[in-house]
Automatic annotation (TrEMBL):
InterPro entries found in the cross-reference section: eIF2B_alpha/beta/delta, elF-2B_alpha_N, IF-2B-related, IF_2B-like_C, MFS_trans_sf, NagB/RpiA_transferase-like
UniProt organism field: Pocillopora damicornis (Cauliflower coral)
Assembly with partners or alone: Component of the translation initiation factor 2B (eIF2B) complex which is a heterodecamer of two sets of five different subunits: alpha, beta, gamma, delta and epsilon. Subunits alpha, beta and delta comprise a regulatory subcomplex and subunits epsilon and gamma comprise a catalytic subcomplex. Within the complex, the hexameric regulatory complex resides at the center, with the two heterodimeric catalytic subcomplexes bound on opposite sides.
The protein's role, per its UniProt record: Acts as a component of the translation initiation factor 2B (eIF2B) complex, which catalyzes the exchange of GDP for GTP on eukaryotic initiation factor 2 (eIF2) gamma subunit. Its guanine nucleotide exchange factor activity is repressed when bound to eIF2 complex phosphorylated on the alpha subunit, thereby limiting the amount of methionyl-initiator methionine tRNA available to the ribosome and consequently global translation is repressed.
Chain segments annotated as transmembrane: 108-128, 134-156, 168-189, 195-219
SUPFAM superfamilies: MFS general substrate transporter, NagB/RpiA/CoA transferase-like
Protein name according to UniProt: Translation initiation factor eIF2B subunit alpha
Keyword Protein biosynthesis: yes
């Protein structure tokens, strides 16, 4: 069943039974699509509990939500469009692109999401090849966490660069990312080669996700930091490499901050006492007048 047939079936349900709600008609349309393609039984059970399904809309459809990549995503979008025109709620399974990430900084949530997604992809190595269902579940988990990390990436990259080069820098990063999008399709196609399976692209994607999650730890935290206007301001600004909890810098035993004008890292203890000296061995104003990060 293609998009037009699905929309026609949805409208037919509304015409045949004027008292039918939009949610019930949408579920019946989805069931018809599934019956003609895969016939998954769990959707039939969900339709019998339509009152519970009707409550899923508020829980799953939010600002920034994304419908998971699927062969029937366009059908779902077409039905969603028709239901929206009638100003009624309608239920689909979606994943939220990212939870509220403002209270935990940028680096650590991105690192956690990417590592979980990468580990989920790499776990296919221990799953037997004939267990395609588990492989799909792991791919579903990996794709979901990578999607959540992607929503942080644009915000974080725009905060890293000063205003004078922000457009150029973000555009350059986006262009390089598009090269990865192009290569991703060919990496997936490698699974069709003799002797390879879907495990190969999953391992490649998992390794790249793990690498990206670890590399971001070398970048400074930008939450609650000043947005620099020029490169000179960036060079003079303190860079914080610690953790954020509820929008506050965590007072951990050792918190790292690169001081401006000095090629060294200041190590600050829990009590706020500086451990270590300047790179040149003296107490110049460039370092000592900088605020301690505790």
């Amino acid at each position: 069943m293609d998009n037009e047939e699905a929309v026609a079936f949805f409208k037919k349900c509304m015409v045949d039974d004027p008292g039918m709600s939009t949610a019930v008609a949408a579920i019946q349309t989805l069931l018809e699509v599934m019956n003609q393609n895969s016939g998954q039984l769990y959707l039939k059970r969900a339709a019998s509990a339509r009152n519970r399904i009707a409550k899923l809309c508020d829980a799953f459809i939010k600002d920034g939500a994304t419908i998971l990549t699927h062969s029937r995503s366009r059908v779902v979008l077409e039905i969603l469009k028709v239901a929206t025109e009638q100003k009624k709620r309608f239920n689909v399974y979606v994943t939220e692109s990212a939870p509220d990430k403002s209270g935990f900084g940028r680096r650590v949530p991105f690192c956690v999401f990417m590592i979980i997604g990468g580990v989920a992809c790499l776990l296919v190595l221990i799953v037997p090849k004939d267990e395609e269902r588990f492989i799909r579940i792991l791919a579903f988990i990996g794709r979901g966490f990578v999607t959540m990390s992607f929503s942080i990436l644009y915000l974080y990259s725009s905060e890293l660069y000063p205003t004078s080069i922000r457009n150029l820098a973000v555009g350059t990063c986006s262009t390089i990312a598009r090269l990865g999008f192009i290569l991703a399709s060919y990496i997936v196609m490698l699974s069709q080669l003799p002797g390879l399976s879907v495990i190969f692209p999953m391992v490649v994607f998992g390794a790249l996700a793990l690498t990206a999650g670890l590399v971001i730890l070398w970048l400074p935290e930008t939450l609650n930091s000043n947005m620099c206007q020029t490169l000179d301001e960036t060079n003079r600004q303190n860079e914080y490499y610690g953790f954020i909890w509820m929008e506050r810098r965590v007072n951990i035993p050792f918190s790292f901050s690169r001081s401006p004008g000095a090629a060294h890292v200041r190590v600050v203890s829990n009590e706020g006492v500086q451990v270590g000296e300047d790179s040149d061995g003296d107490d110049d104003d460039t370092v000592d007048n900088a605020p301690l990060i505790t």
